[in-house]
Write a structure and sequence with these properties.
The protein is of the alpha+beta class. 30% of the residues lie in helices and 28% in strands. The chain contains ten helices and 21 strands. Residues 10-16, 33-36, 41-44, 46-50, 148-149, 173-177, 180, 193-195, 230-231, 247, 289, 291-292, 338, 340-346 line the site of flavin-adenine dinucleotide.
Length: 383
């Protein structure tokens, strides 16, 4: 064990790669680790990677998504201009009830839109190339792939991973696999989804979203167009042996519930055909992955509250007493960015910027995304 990194990030999805990008502006001693053989092989590789506004009445989550969408769209345009297609998205209400809801949201639209086809066109809508973006964002940091972190412990103020790699600061961006975070309040559920890439004789000029999303198409040959369709939602008990298999490029997806994959593929083709005539669509590629969502849908960012030490110091928290967030005891030099759910490509650059501002400048994170909210809720519930 000779080298000590200033930062180690575990997880090379969009959360980890975005964090690597912003940290690399401040340090040249960063190691990004993943158990897979490359970046974007977990949920980040399965994503349709659409950037689309959240419609609804004003609330804190919508406000967060709106800020993140504006930030991330500009960020990708500036830093990865070849890997974002800002061709707009047509949002189509699923039924009459959905149309009524849309009408009621009109006074609260955060982005320009106009009526188009049988829905509403938002110019802000984009799709990004997930693999290229992760690769570009992580280009300036050292990487170690096919390396699984099984344990970490603190010794003399440093983190030691698997008894062999050492760092000052540890950032866990491990998506749906939260086995490295030992806090009971850190509750993430995995919702599995699927994306298919299809080739067809018809072209699609924009992104569409109704019961599924369809991307604009790329023309690869005369009369041959490729576009993607995502996503399904399946709650599957997350079996890490299964996860590792399906993430593994060499093994492919055959080891993971082939019948479910077949059913989802059929469902996606039908839903897409309900949006647009997708012609002679032939499936070229299938990707599946787990979206990692927190119980209140807000992301989980920043330092981890140490529940044992905090409850030892403030036992009356269990009786409902109030303790200010900044007085809770946090684990030094240990950070997380997780729970980005179905909007990882919208939220991650924005959240990673906020996280790095916290790490470098000690800037306080918004309470809605930081860990005290989960800790306090957990204490209240388990009292
Ligand atoms: C089908 C589908 C469609 C989606 N569509 C969209 C969309 O259109 N727009 C959008 O914004 N979002 C979309 N999402 C959501 C988005 O993909 C996720 O929110 C995002 O990818 C999560 O990124 P992440 O970095 O947190 O997790 P991941 O990408 O899963 O990365 C976590 C990484 O951590 C690694 N890891 C975990 N534990 C360890 C360990 N112990 N040691 C080493 N490595 C470890 C894993 O191997 C993995 O690579 C979609 C998701 C799915 C599944």
């Amino acid at each position: 064990m000779n080298k000590t990194y200033e930062y180690i990030i575990i997880g090379a999805g969009i959360a980890g790669c975005s964090t690597a990008y912003f940290l690399s502006k401040h340090s040249s001693s960063i190691l990004l680790i993943d158990r897979n053989c490359d970046v974007a092989q977990g949920a980040s590789g399965a994503a349709g990677a659409f950037l689309s506004p959240l419609l609804g009445k004003p609330n804190a989550f919508k406000d967060l998504v709106t800020k993140a969408l504006s930030f991330s769209t500009s960020f990708y345009k500036e830093n990865t201009p070849l890997d974002i297609q800002n061709c707009g998205v047509v949002r189509i209400p699923k039924n009459e009830e959905d149309e009524e809801k849309f009408q009621s949201y009109k006074p609260y639209m955060d982005f320009e839109y106009k009526k188009e086809e049988n829905g509403y066109f938002f110019e802000i809508g984009s799709q990004v190339n997930s693999y290229n973006i992760c690769n570009t964002l992580a280009k300036d940091v050292e990487k170690r792939f096919k390396y699984e972190v099984l344990s970490y412990k603190k010794e003399d103020g440093h983190w030691i991973l698997n008894d062999e790699i050492k760092c000052k600061n540890l950032i866990i961006t491990s998506g749906a696999d939260t086995s490295l975070v030992k806090e009971n309040y850190f509750n993430i559920r995995a919702v599995w989804g699927q994306k298919i890439d299809v080739e067809s004789n018809v072209s699609i000029l924009k992104n569409y979203h109704k019961a599924c999303s369809i991307s604009f198409s790329k023309n690869v040959e005369e009369d041959l167009h490729i576009f993607s369709i995502g996503a399904t939602h399946n709650r599957i008990e997350c079996n890490l042996n299964i996860c590792n298999c399906c993430f593994d490029k060499d093994k492919g997806h055959d080891t993971y519930t082939p019948s479910l994959i077949k059913k989802d593929t059929q469902e996606l083709l039908e839903k897409a055909n309900d949006i647009k005539n997708i012609g002679s669509a032939k499936v070229r590629n299938i990707k599946i992955g787990p979206r990692a969502s927190s119980l209140d849908y807000f992301p989980i960012v920043g330092k981890l509250v140490d529940s044992v030490k905090t409850l030892e110091k403030y036992p009356h928290l269990k009786n409902g007493s109030h303790v200010k967030n900044d007085m809770l005891i946090t684990e030094e030099n240990l950070f997380v960015l997780n729970g980005v759910g179905g909007r990882g490509y919208v939220l991650s650059p924005y959240l990673a910027k906020n996280l790095v501002d916290e790490i470098i400048d000690n800037k306080l994170l918004n309470v809605e995304i930081s860990t005290p909210r989960l800790f306090k809720r957990w204490v209240k519930k388990n009292n």
